[in-house]
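Design job #97: recover the sequence.
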């Protein structure tokens, strides 16, 4: 019998929702063709919701949590994968319908696996994770909308968080003038190192949104939602675009349609989990070209998986800087 290993398992029980570490063996894993030895996972806002039970994330019980994983194939009955292949999964139903990455081992459907891009280690792939994919999808959405680098700024809300940090770095590297909107002005040196041209206190965008404001932004990557998204919309210049990624500040869609009707502003939703394989491949290719190792080191730190409960609390309180990579074997 294979050795037991720890995994973070969530369950809906008669007494309510519970998430905690449990010892699993290979025979407990789902009957999918590819057995992966996981090296690293990561912490995303959605993981925070699942670990603490503050959001309804799991759609089957019991569920191994962790929406991302990177590791090596140990065995595979699918011809597309061989033992030793390095692979990565971000989102795609992990921790919702399929068992996820907060475990040392997992059996997975081959269609979920992306070969690890040659330029990245498994740790670097998890420094990117779902948050990094989302940031690149947001940049691509702005490009698709015709928003080009120029004098007018691109606003990034939740700038010091995971999606925000990668977005600031990617946009700045492409030559956009980035205004980092943050509730943590003390992180100005960090945000400037990533390439932010200006730091804007979050409070400036938290007031009651007007129907239309003076044209301030060429576009935005929004991780906040709610009033902040409405304020961004009202102040986006003609033909600008907003990539709506998150809801750290609220799930409601506030504001008016004036910016859309009078300025042709485009509001583009981003869904990294549902990103199709062809686009996912392009996203990883661009991340490989546009995210240098030094940037990944600057935005991420490694923590043992055993700390994930405390870290989950912290991410929901907006206290995490950049990205947390989780070492599942520590
Ligand atoms: N659409 C998708 O596919 C997708 C994928 C990944 C994540 N998301 C969403 O994107 C958001 C960011 O995810 P993440 O993993 O980057 O989380 P994160 O690391 O916690 O980043 C969120 C950031 O938002 C800011 N923030 C916190 N509370 C806020 C509030 N009340 N109002 C406004 N801003 C607040 C904080 O940055 P500052 O301190 O700098 O203000 C915080 O660091 C989450 O809502 C997540 O659910 C969506």
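Job complete. Output follows.
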């Amino acid at each position: 019998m294979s050795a037991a290993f720890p995994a973070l398992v969530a369950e809906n029980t008669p007494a309510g929702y519970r998430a905690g570490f449990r010892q699993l063996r290979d025979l407990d894993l789902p009957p999918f063709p590819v057995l992966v030895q996981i090296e690293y996972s990561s912490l995303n806002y959605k993981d925070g919701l699942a670990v603490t039970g503050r959001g309804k994330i799991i759609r089957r019980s019991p569920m191994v949590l962790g929406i991302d994983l990177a590791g090596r194939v140990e065995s595979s009955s699918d011809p597309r994968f061989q033992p030793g292949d390095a692979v990565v999964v971000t989102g795609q139903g992990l921790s919702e319908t399929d068992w996820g990455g907060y475990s040392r081992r997992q059996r997975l459907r081959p269609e979920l696996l992306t070969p690890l891009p040659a330029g990245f280690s498994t740790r670097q792939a998890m420094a990117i994770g779902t948050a990094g994919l989302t940031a690149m999808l947001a940049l691509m959405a702005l490009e698709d909308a015709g928003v080009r680098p120029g004098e007018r700024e691109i606003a990034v809300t939740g700038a010091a968080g995971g999606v925000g940090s990668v977005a600031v770095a990617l946009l700045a590297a492409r030559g956009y003038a980035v205004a980092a909107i943050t509730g943590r002005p003390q992180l100005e040196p960090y945000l400037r190192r990533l390439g932010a041209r200006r730091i804007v206190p979050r409070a400036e965008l938290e007031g009651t949104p007007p129907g239309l404001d003076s044209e301030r932004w060429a576009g935005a990557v929004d991780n906040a939602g709610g009033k902040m998204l409405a304020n961004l919309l009202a102040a986006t210049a003609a033909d600008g675009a907003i990539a709506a990624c998150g809801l750290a500040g609220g799930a409601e869609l506030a504001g008016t349609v004036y910016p859309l009707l009078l300025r042709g502003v485009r509001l583009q939703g981003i869904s990294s989990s549902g990103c199709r394989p062809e686009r996912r491949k392009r996203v990883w290719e661009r991340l490989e070209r546009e995210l240098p190792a030094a940037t990944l080191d600057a935005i991420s730190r490694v923590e043992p998986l055993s700390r994930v409960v405390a870290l989950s609390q912290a991410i929901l309180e907006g206290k995490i800087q950049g990205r947390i990579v989780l070492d599942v074997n520590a």
